[in-house]
Amino acid sequence: KGQRGAAVGDSLEAANYWSRIPTPFATERDELMKTHAELGYGKRLQEAMAKTNEYKHEESRKLLQLLQEVEWNPATQDNLVKCANQGRRLHIAMELMREKIRRFGPSSTLYSRLGETLLELGETEEALAAWTKGANLNSDDYGKNCFRNLARYYIEHEGDLEKSQKFQALGIIGFAKEA
Question: Model-level pTM?
């Protein structure tokens, strides 16, 4: 862990000197990518995200589903989940998160969100299992959030102070590892 900062610094320094190898198609590719961002998929995704943020669930959902049919994209899937959660379509949000886990593998972020959705659906055991998986992955800040969710659940729903404190302590250890 001591060399992690140096390795990141070296990779960032190398990235600053990186350049694309010239090809006869570079200009055409750049133009195509610009068009894609301004008019194509990228533009449509921005529109859908704006509709999601404006709580226009139905419009956003339709556009996002159309985009997923064209090109399956994790960012689009995340927005579909957000749209489903905002529209209180929790079963759909749950299935979308499970699909993303199947396609891209587990992450503590997904398990944290999945656990919250499952708890709202009344699927307590599954929610606890999702948070436990996310906490054990500890792949990002959401791993620590999984510990927090477990601690909160045990104190608020079961009144089990000892279990709550156990998960609080594990979460603190997770935060300390990152410091």
Answer: 0.63
Whole-angstrom CA distances from 17 to 3, 12, 14, 142 are 22, 9, 5, 33
For 163, other C-beta atoms within 10 Å of its C-beta total 15
pLDDT at position 19 = 60
Name the DSSP class of 25: T
21-39 as b/e, with b when 16 or more CB fall inside 10 Å? eeeeeeeeeeeeeeeeeee
Structure tokens at 127: 């929610």
Percentage of residues of the chain with pLDDT beyond 90? 13
Residue with tokens 């995200």: 49
Chain CA centroid to CA 46, Å:
17
Question: Which pLDDT tens digit goes with each residue over 50-63?
Answer: 887 887 878 888 88
Q: What is the 3-state secondary structure (H, E, C) of 83-148?
A: HHHHCCCHHHHHHHHHHHHHHHCCCHHHHHHHHHHHHHCCCHHHHHHHHHHHHHHCCCHHHHHHHH
Contacts for 62 with CB less than 8 Å, ≥ 6 apart: none
Quick: pLDDT tens for 133-175. 988 886 566 678 888 889 999 989 889 999 989 888 888 776 6
